[in-house]
Design goal:
Oligomer: homodimer
Helix content of chain A: 40-55%
CATH topology of the largest domain in chain A: Molybdenum Cofactor Biosythetic Enzyme, Chain A
Largest interface: A-B, 90 and 94 residues
Largest sheet of chain A: 6 strands, mixed
Low-confidence stretches of chain A: none
Radius of gyration of chain A: 26 Å
Number of helices of chain A: 16
Amino acid sequence: MEAILITIGDEILIGQIIDTNSAWMGQEMNLRGIKVREVISISDTKTDIIETLHKAFEHADLILMTGGLGPTKDDITKKAIAEYYNVGMTFHPPTYEWILRFFKKLNKQPTNAHREQCFMPNNAVLLENKMGSAPGMWFDEDGKVLISMPGVPYEMKSIMRDEVFPRLNERFISKPIAHRTVLTIGEGESRIASRIENFEASLPGNIKLAYLPNLGKVRLRLTAVGENGQDLEAVLDEKVELLKEYIPELIFGYETETIEEVIGRIFKEKGKTVSTAESCTGGFLAHKITSVPGSSAYFNGAAITYSNELKQKMLNVSADTLQKHGAVSEATVIEMVKGALNTMNSDIAVAISGIAGPDGGTPEKPVGTVWLAIGDKNKTETHKLQLWKDRIKNIEYTSIFALNMMRKFLLNGTIR
Amino acid sequence: MEAILITIGDEILIGQIIDTNSAWMGQEMNLRGIKVREVISISDTKTDIIETLHKAFEHADLILMTGGLGPTKDDITKKAIAEYYNVGMTFHPPTYEWILRFFKKLNKQPTNAHREQCFMPNNAVLLENKMGSAPGMWFDEDGKVLISMPGVPYEMKSIMRDEVFPRLNERFISKPIAHRTVLTIGEGESRIASRIENFEASLPGNIKLAYLPNLGKVRLRLTAVGENGQDLEAVLDEKVELLKEYIPELIFGYETETIEEVIGRIFKEKGKTVSTAESCTGGFLAHKITSVPGSSAYFNGAAITYSNELKQKMLNVSADTLQKHGAVSEATVIEMVKGALNTMNSDIAVAISGIAGPDGGTPEKPVGTVWLAIGDKNKTETHKLQLWKDRIKNIEYTSIFALNMMRKFLLNGTIR
């Protein structure tokens, strides 16, 4: 059972956008035991689309195609598909009604192009798009399946989750395959590898371990292939238990959880609240925390104090401390935590002050110097990071690091 | 003159890494007037590589291939190429000497695998790799060129710059091509399409227009192909000027600029400062503003007031207003702007309060209801959005919308 992913659009060929859809789809197919044989990007011309479909179906039983579905006239994917299958196109009233409702909500009027968009190849099964106006399409002919979706990543993902995965599970049965993903934070790939060397050596031939690192976090994915699905689940559960013994403090969750979701759950369990006092991260930590639905139950708020004036005014950091130690210092972040606890009346507060870069460093405090503090009414602990010259990377890494500080402080009462 | 890019490696097919090499190479080819016809990712198996080479050379005169050149044993690209060309492989002493010197510098010992790596297809012209141990290779047979390079991005780029570009310039002369990207915000793809219908109709056959939408923004890309490069630049400049007449208020920038960079530049020009008062966006607007290097020159800070208590305490919103109108109301965001101007002492303040979802809506204020306000000491303007059920999408769209409010308020003194 092999699949080919096709992305349509000149913007990929000329390098104007990076194709992230394929990576996401590749991961999802892999998790389902469907082998992606090839990823192909082509231009949005009818002949190229038709020719690529012909070639791809020579090798694959499943094609996932993204891009080229939208209201403007450069979108010719649907016409190419209709021509490929040698079918006509028909106006599809429910889709037009959906578009009308969608636009009504936005207080806007659909255009003629939106009406055009509702013509669909006659053999298409339409896949509802909750995030946009163009539905996806499912074709099942001669034992082979073609799925066509819009290229906008959140629209594609929404259609995949709600419409495509259930249909794929029903339509294709493959060799049992099982996965467990163990989520770690706090150590790099190679240090984890050396700590779990004996664990890796203990794995039988039908279980593979993959390291999936991503800025401050490493996912460990165990994949087992076999004849009996139930056995696979049991042996993977065992292996995960064994892995926990090697790196207990690094594991923050499993499967698709995020660190901010895990922390949210712990806050709710403990009935505690939190606030942040951020300088160089500029609100990114608050954003990560509030990206979780229901975070208002434990997140009171944040003071983003970019200027020294605001550190004094909003967080009561003393002018003396700022002058003596500077804004990027242990003394300052300790006072920021105290100020945040007071001003924002939370059980726990996190403070961050650093030099995100690319400019603004000094010989004593080079770009990438970041001080963090976390505390409650009883104690405050601090940590210093020495990061990179890349502004966005520094902001993101620091915020993830702060989330892990919150996790440790909540669970153990200390970040040590 | 058409090229095909091939990336080799299972890690791309299973989505473990995102293929950024192709986007970079696509841009570089495009700048040189070489049309990239297709981007293909395949697994590192000999048969797949050979078959893909055969198919690709049916359509293209130039193939750029990355990945599969390295010291580990799964790298079989070179053997596949030798088999494709039906030539043998020979040990290449200069490459081995280069590897020995390279490892001496790193204070490491090469392994046997590194010696293996020095066997090259007999018809290869070697391309020096200043950044790693595996050289690139150039093949020129039957009027068609194949270039094979390591997949490590900085190694590939170094070989491209030093070895490939000069050879390509010498070997191929291609048709001039030119691009302009016009960045718009504030209207969807189809509405823009209907507003610029006459503009599109006025474009000569050698100029193509593409719509590249992305949550609240649409990029319009004009591509011109012709015989004379200078003429193309001139005619595109003319067309961009013409386009401005159709949608003047929607255009915020050109080429690769971001809305937050453009706003940063305007703030600096006007010598004004800004602060934000955010509820449902949870700091994401502050993050967007501070993602720009040097934003401390105009961004004072933000109050992320998730709870009503903090709206009162940090922004001086009256308990009366909150009780009468609710936290998500025009009256509340107006008071938040006033409070932000006072507390954070900025020239301009933006306030946001809404229901990001997925829960928390009521019949009068469903999920996706968002109130925004922007003001200075003289006046405050408001806007209501009715968005989706998707939390992250609502947060991101609202923040982009707020950035555009800032742009209009700065430039015209009003968001109307």
